[in-house]
Amino acid sequence: MESQITKDDLRLFAQTIIGELKDLLVKQNKETSLDWVKAKVARQLLSISPASLQTLRINGKLQYRKILGSYYYNRKEIENLFSK
User: Fold this and answer.
1) pLDDT at 84
2) Which of 1, 15, 37, 57 is the most exposed place for a label (fewest CB within 10 A)?
3) 42-64 burial: b if 16+ Cβ within 10 Å, else e
4) Does residue 53 register a pLDDT over 90?
5) Alpha-carbon distance 51 to 65, whole Å?
6) Cβ-contact 53, 46 below 8 angstroms
7) Cα(40)–Cα(48) distance, rounded to whole angstroms?
8) What's the CA dihedral at 18, 24, 25, 31 to 10 degrees?
């Protein structure tokens, strides 16, 4: 017995794949956004001034990324900064 694939079957398959990809991307974005924090949050976590945060960045004590003029810091490094 042959079963034929219809256009509706293909649409359903495409919607399923797209839905799963969206869920995966949302989950990945949530995980990534928690790993990197803006400078203001980093300063609050460390209870330091903007100049002190800049000094840590310049001296290479904190890993950072500059995206569109804003600095982002790795949360794990912030937490481990003074535990060494």
Assistant:
1) 57
2) 1
3) bbeebeeeeeebeebbeeeebeb
4) yes
5) 17
6) yes
7) 10
8) 170
Q: Quote the domain boundaries for residue 54.
A: 36-81
How many other C-beta atoms lie within 10 A of the C-beta of residue 81? 16
pLDDT band of 35, cuts 50, 70, 90: confident
Q: For the whole model, what pTM was predicted?
A: 0.57
pLDDT tens column, 62-78: 989 998 999 999 888 88
Instruction: Quote the CA–CA distance of 23 and 15 in Å, as a whole number.
Output: 12
Residue 2 lies in a domain: no
Residue 31 identity (one-letter amino acid)? E
Q: Which amino acid is at 79?
A: E
